[in-house]
Amino acid sequence: MMRRIGGYRIDSVGQDWDLFLRMAERGRVANLLKILYLNRLHRQSNAWKTAKKIVRGNDYALACARCRREGRPEPTPKFFFEEWARRPLYRRMITSQKAYADSFYRESLVCRLEGKRFAGLYNLGLASVFYPPKIFIRLRRVLMAANRQSDKRDR
């Protein structure tokens, strides 16, 4: 499948989203219930330091997918990122809010892993203030995974 769609083609963040979106357009994709890998979570990770770039790259992948769906040519990365930088103030603020929410969410996870429950809850609260929809989606995912684990143990 990856060869048919041209593999990775973006040389920056957003490349995974671009690849997965193109795969979904050409075949069936699904989320698996089984956990296949674990992410290492630490404060020096790229995902932690480049949250805004990740949002920008994912926005580019989504814009390309929208253009393909509508039969229009995809924007070049240079054109897209120049236009992206000129977005209205409220759109730039939403991007910042998403990035801050993601950073606080990651911090809450690290605090919980370090046994700092109050700091973890505090950072989770900050994340939910900055961008509630993202946090609710992540928490729902965590709760669903916990329920699946509980169901396995009950069997």
Write down the overall geometry: globular
Q: From the alpha-carbon coordinates, what is the Rg to the nearest angstrom?
A: 18 Å
DSSP helix fraction: over 70%
Number of separate strands: 0
Can you write the helix and strand succession as a string?
HHHHHHHH
Average residue-wise pLDDT:
84
Distance between the termini: 36 Å
Low-confidence stretches: none
Tally of distinct domains:
2
Helix and strand content put the structural class at mainly alpha
The count of helical stretches stands at 8
| Proportion of beta-strand residues | under 5%
Please give the largest β-sheet: none
Describe the structure.
This protein is mainly alpha-helical and 155 residues long. It folds into two domains: 1-31 and 50-86, no CATH class; 89-155, no CATH class. Helices cover 72% and strands 0% of the residues. It is built from eight helices and no strands. It has helices at residues 2-5, 15-26, 46-49, 51-70, 77-85, 89-113, 117-130, 132-154. α7 (117-130) crosses α8 (132-154). The mean pLDDT is 84.
